[in-house]
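Long-time lurker. I teach an intro course on protein structure, and each term I like to show students one example going from raw sequence to a predicted 3D structure in token notation. This year I'd like something fresh instead of my usual example. Would anyone be willing to generate the tokens for the chain below so I can use it in lecture? Attribution to the forum is fine with me.
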Amino acid sequence: MNMSYRVTVGYRQPSDAAAFDAYFRTTHVPITSRMPGVVRMSAGRTESFDGSAPEFYEVAEIVFESKDSALAAVSSPEGQAAAADIGNFADGGFVMLFSPEEVSFP
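-- Reply from a regular --
Happy to contribute to a lecture. Here you go:
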């Protein structure tokens, strides 16, 4: 049984939020969108309910049809370009997670 597979990236707080936002949206997202097999990509800045600074500034999720298609995408030239580009704007660091979409409901 194939199930959707996600690559989730949590970007920690950048030193310059405006520069991060501009680069992420105008340069990094277009690079990432060229990865083969992307079913859906979503991203957004994080918030906290109590007003404290969250650990991550932005979280992005890229969804693929299967683990095999995710592996092919991240190892493709386009995937390697997207991974290499992270260092150009994510000066606060980042975490990359890989997971099957085991539970999903409307």
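Some talking points for your students: The CA atoms of residues 21 and 62 lie 18 Å apart. The chain has a mean pLDDT of 95.
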